[in-house]
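About this split. The held-out portion is used to measure sequence recovery: a designer receives only the structure tokens and must propose an amino acid at every position. Recovery is the fraction of positions where the proposal matches the reference. Here is one held-out target exactly as it appears in the evaluation file.
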């Protein structure tokens, strides 16, 4: 069993039992899962399997108790003020002084007790009358009793003294640690301020830098594009860039129009679409070049429910960051007490649903006859989910356990979506989307986050599955790391970095997308994304390029060759391509969006009140509704009430688990209402999948099975 500090620094492959799911597949197999990691264990017999399950459950219960004893899960402890630390230090000094006095008294009692005993012994040996001798004997007996009692008290005082000295050292160490943390944080803030000033001076001293970068960008689009990742200006603690060291470097060169019967169209005209540009099999690409925004505008002409186009403006409240941040370094985001001042009036379930904003990319992918062509649309869809994050620095509400969110757009766009919070520690949400236009998407996402002092890392764990009904093509990919910079000093901004590997498990096609991290000194386009679509044999068919906040383009490869060796010793591949086609372009944000949390048109409708939804729906969450209305003080009170209610339910559930284990009974723990855990046939991971029943319950308005969470 490990302490919480040890759990945070374990080796690769370790599973934290306190948050793990323990399941049995059959008579001999055990499945251990935590977030996106799953282990399959096999016992020799059913008896041995049961012994292991019992041992693991007992260890899990003990790990939960250890975690609760070390720190309250809610993280709502108030940071100690400077006056509290001074008072603690004064108390320690007073206690130390009293302990010295007590030690002196111990020595004096022992000394005077021994002297009294000697005096009485000498008096008893004197020749005195018989009556006096009896009285002296009685006094001597009483002195002996006093000596025995004094010795017992001395021993007790000595034990107390040892114990107090031990705890005094522990308190001194805790106080010293708090001082060091404060000094370290102050030094970090000072260093950040100096770096900020020096960067501002450097920027003012190089006025030609911005125009130079713009020129390089425009020429690169028309001629050569490099996918070589630049080094980040982050410090050595930036761990999330390690995975990109093996990314293949390549160069794309636009093919000569004369040799490939081109129409002479350039990049700026590519979005208009030219039938002669690519082969006839690429007709789906041609239709995609027309603006998706215009297409959705045309759809607006159809009779449908009118959605809201604005929410109340965000209030301008100030907040003292120091009182919140000083004790947050190294903790998980879910364990830090956060007022609604840091939030936006949407839950994490609604943010997850927001990934469907560009669902029409999947509708177009259904029409593709070629699997590699279809992969291009899937890749564009995977990138489009990040477009809303560029200005969205606020934190969504953490969903309560059992909270749900539905988005029924079956009549308007042909799909309906359902999310449920299926776990609280670690926080995990299951998502299922069905489209009658020919595709189904499902995922279970666990959010791991760390506050590093300078920045906040958000690491989504879990796979996203997408299946097309007619072809049976099954795509799987995972999200990249999101980083929120300038947590303490400066303006908040978000970056995406890492790699996405999309695999079609039927045809074995792959797409490797690289999100280049921002670097102050890089000449690359900010928020750049590049990638290559290849078939099962590894032959490259398309090059993907663009930015995750604006658009993605696709270029068909007509020839590939090995180019010169780079400075790192890696040989670059040169792809000769046709002119790029725009697959996806970001919708323009609505008017006054800066005062509405930078919400997109879809995000503005996600928390709009609707009838007939489940009583656990995020739209009915009172603290979120109060925040959207601008009543933040009331929202903070309501948020605290809801979290305390959830903690009480969790404590009761943990007590029931311990009681069941002591009695030798099985305890299933929390069971999701609309989802169930299964071992995925493709990835082999334990994942929550939709088991049905929600939309039928909505039609009947039978919500009797829903828990009371609000």
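Reference sequence for scoring:
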């Amino acid at each position: 069993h490990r302490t919480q500090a040890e759990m945070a620094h374990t080796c690769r492959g370790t599973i934290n039992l306190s948050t793990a799911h323990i399941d049995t597949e059959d008579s001999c197999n055990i499945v251990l899962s935590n977030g996106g990691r799953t282990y399959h264990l096999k016992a020799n017999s059913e008896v041995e399997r049961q012994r292991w399950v019992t041992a693991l459950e007992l260890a899990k219960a003990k790990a939960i108790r250890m975690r609760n004893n070390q720190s309250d899960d809610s993280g709502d402890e108030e940071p100690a003020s400077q006056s509290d630390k001074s008072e603690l230090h004064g108390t320690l000094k007073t206690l130390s002084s009293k302990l010295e006095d007590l030690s002196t008294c111990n020595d004096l009692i022992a000394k005077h007790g021994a002297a009294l005993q000697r005096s009485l012994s000498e008096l008893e040996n004197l020749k005195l009358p018989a009556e006096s001798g009896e009285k002296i004997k009685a006094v001597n007996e009483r002195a002996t009793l006093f000596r025995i009692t004094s010795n017992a008290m001395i021993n007790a005082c000595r034990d107390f003294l040892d114990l107090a000295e031990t705890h005094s050292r522990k308190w001194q160490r805790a106080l010293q640690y708090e001082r060091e943390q404060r000094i370290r944080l102050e030094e970090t803030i000072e260093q950040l301020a100096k770096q900020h000033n020096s960067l501002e001076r450097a920027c003012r001293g190089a006025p030609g830098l911005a125009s130079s970068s713009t020129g390089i960008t425009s020429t690169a689009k028309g001629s050569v594009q490099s996918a070589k990742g630049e080094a980040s200006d982050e410090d050595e603690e930036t761990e999330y860039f390690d995975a990109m060291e093996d990314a293949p470097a390549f160069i794309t060169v636009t093919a000569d129009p004369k040799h490939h019967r081109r129409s002479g169209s350039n990049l700026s005209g590519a979005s208009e679409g030219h039938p002669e540009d690519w082969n006839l099999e690429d007709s789906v690409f041609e239709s995609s070049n027309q603006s998706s925004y215009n297409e959705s505008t045309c759809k607006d002409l159809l009779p449908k429910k009118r959605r809201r186009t604005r929410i109340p403006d965000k209030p301008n409240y100030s907040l003292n960051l120091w009182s919140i941040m000083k004790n947050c370094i190294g903790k998980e985001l879910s364990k830090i007490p956060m007022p609604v001042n840091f939030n936006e009036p949407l839950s994490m379930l609604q943010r997850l649903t927001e990934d469907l904003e560009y669902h029409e990319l999947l509708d177009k992918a259904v029409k593709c006859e070629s699997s590699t062509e279809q992969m291009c649309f899937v890749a564009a869809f995977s990138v489009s989910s990040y477009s809303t994050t560029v200005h969205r620095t606020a934190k969504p509400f953490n969903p309560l356990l059992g909270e749900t969110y539905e988005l029924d757009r079956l009549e308007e766009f042909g799909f309906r979506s359902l999310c449920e919070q299926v776990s609280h520690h670690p926080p995990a949400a299951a998502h299922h989307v069905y489209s009658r236009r020919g595709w189904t998407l499902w995922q279970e996402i666990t959010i791991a986050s760390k506050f590093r002092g300078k920045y906040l890392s958000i690491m989504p764990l879990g796979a996203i599955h997408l299946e097309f009904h007619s072809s049976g093509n099954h795509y799987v990919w995972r999200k990249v790391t999101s980083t929120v910079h300038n947590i303490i000093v400066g303006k908040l901004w978000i970056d995406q970095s890492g790699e996405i590997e999309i695999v079609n498990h039927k045809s074995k096609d792959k797409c490797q997308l690289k999100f280049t991290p921002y670097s102050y000194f890089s000449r690359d386009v900010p928020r750049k994304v590049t990638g290559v679509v290849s078939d099962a044999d590894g032959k490259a068919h398309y090059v993907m390029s663009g930015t995750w906040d604006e658009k993605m383009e696709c270029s068909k490869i007509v020839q590939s060759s090995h180019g010169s060796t780079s400075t790192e010793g890696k040989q670059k591949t040169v792809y000769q391509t046709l002119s790029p086609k725009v697959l996806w372009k970001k919708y323009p944000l609505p008017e006054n969006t800066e005062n509405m949390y930078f919400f997109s048109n879809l995000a503005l409708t996600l928390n709009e009140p609707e009838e007939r939804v489940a009583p656990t729906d995020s739209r009915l969450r009172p603290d979120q509704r109060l925040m959207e209305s601008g009543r933040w003080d009331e929202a903070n009170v309501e948020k605290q009430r809801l979290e305390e209610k959830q903690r009480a339910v969790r404590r009761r559930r943990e007590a029931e688990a311990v009681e069941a284990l002591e009695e030798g009974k099985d305890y299933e723990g929390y069971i999701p209402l609309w989802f169930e855990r299964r071992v995925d046939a493709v990835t082999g991971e334990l994942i929550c999948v939709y088991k049905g029943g929600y939309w039928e319950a909505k039609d009947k308005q039978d919500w009797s099975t829903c828990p009371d969470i609000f």
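Annotator remark: The chain is about 40% helix and 25% strand.
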